[in-house]
Amino acid sequence: MREQLKAYAPYISVFGLVVLLAGAVAPRLAQQSGATAPEWLGTALLVAGAVLALAWPLLRPEDVAAVFGTRQVRYGGNALVLVAAVLAILVALNFLSTRRYRAWDLTTNKQFTVSRQTVQILNDLQQPVALTAILGAGDGETDSLERLLDQYKAETDKLTYTRIDPQLDLPELLGLAQRLNLGQNVPGKALVAESGGRHAIVYSFDEQAVTEVIVKASRARDKTVVFLTGHGEHDIAGGGTTGRGYASVKQGLEREGYTVTSQSLSAVTTTLTADAVVIAGPQQPYQPEEAALLADYVEGGGALLLMLDPGGESGLEPVLLPWEIRPHGDLVLQSNALFGVTEAAVAVVNQDYQFHSITKDLERFETRLVGTQSIGVGTPVTTAMQVSKLIEVGGNAGSVVWGEKDLAGLQNGQAQADPTDEQPPLTLAVAGEGGEGYGRVVVFGTSNLAADGILQRLGQAANYDLMLNAVNWLTTDEDLISIRPTEPDSRPISPPQSPTLLLLVTAVLVPLAIFGIAAWIWWRRR
Description:
Blueprint: H1 2-33, H2 39-53, H3 55-59, H4 61-68, H5 71-99, H6 116-123, E1 129-134, H7 140-153, E2 159-164, H8 170-179, E3 190-195, E4 198-202, H9 207-218, E5 223-229, H10 247-255, E6 258-264, E7 276-280, H11 288-299, E8 303-307, H12 317-320, E9 325-327, E10 331-336, E11 341-343, E12 345-348, E13 367-370, E14 375-377, E15 386-393, E16 399-404, H13 407-410, E17 426-433, E18 440-444, H14 452-458, H15 463-474, H16 499-525
Parallel strand pairs: 1-2, 5-6, 5-7, 7-8, 8-18
Antiparallel strand pairs: 1-3, 3-4, 9-14, 10-11, 10-16, 12-13, 15-17, 17-18
Helix pairs in contact: 1-2
């Protein structure tokens, strides 16, 4: 019997290697196909394959000794040991790189780097956040989401991630729906965050959505931002063709976990109840009783964002009186000496931003204030109250700014700086806080700061970030103040349109280059 096995030992060992391969591959193939294989199958195949593979060296050891005694085998063995050592080093380096690594984003707008806002939020997490993605294995967004979450987990150890395939992991999906009391409304594709008994759901998987769902789930309660209506203010539902809406800002605030609503002061019977109130460009003045209601709100610790356009009275002077903040009612113009152009759009860059939490991350970006007035700042009524300039422009060698007082003359095309106008430096935005229970106020000299039409026209200007940063500061959410994620760059490759140039390159230059290389090689060999 032993002699018969010795004769077939090589074939038995080869068959054992096939069984080993089947043991390694079969469970994964069964999982991908949706079949359920016994848990012991893979282990049993591996053990059986290993036993069968040892038949040749155990039954015919003389063959092994003869093979390993040759010079070629010794040389080959040395090479094999060297290759194995190199592979072991590479495996060790790969293992260490998964634990400690650093990536560099070389794109111009840092498309593949999470924003500082996201990093700050992750660093400030007080309790664990569990993320669950309802995504299929073959979904194109799965890999991009997991790469993004790798960057998130590199910033904090309080983030965990699991994925539920809605087709294969039905028990886990039903368990998630039951835990969150979703009933029959189980999403087929979503990202769920759970933290401290709260949960939130989003239906996209980019950085803004992931950060939004983390903020919503980890925040102790939702904060409310109220946009006042009734005096011709910008509408948060959108401004139609006029571009006066604030729909983009509303969406941005909701992504950061705020509840955004609109309300008329006529519906308020006692006091305002909101974490922040926004008045965006009233066209009619507020009545004294309405101004008194807002003043009481701020004196009681409320937060108010005012965006007041040039010309006309707002009726809100009593609200700003404790900080001695006085809108001038002028129109700030900027004249470019190089191009001879004067326009009512002031470019805010570099040193124009003053030191404050709202503007601290904007120095490298440009804000364009369209149709803004300047603001006077005096001495607050008490030393406990503080007022800070956010933006102050003074012009430079290439431009001149001034606050035009003659608004009627502008309609006739008369725009010229004279001694009666407001002279630079001009303050265009201020913030006030503190003082015996007082809340916070931020005042901009224009309501066009982040209107939908302005954002569409200006593109990558920092107006949107400045607006959201102001709301974050008013609601004491300084951890959200930063630069929002940037949109991917579009850099299409445009081929030459000239047929003559295409013919010259393909039919003349490329063959000449090949011929020149061949001639150089031939000459060198001679």
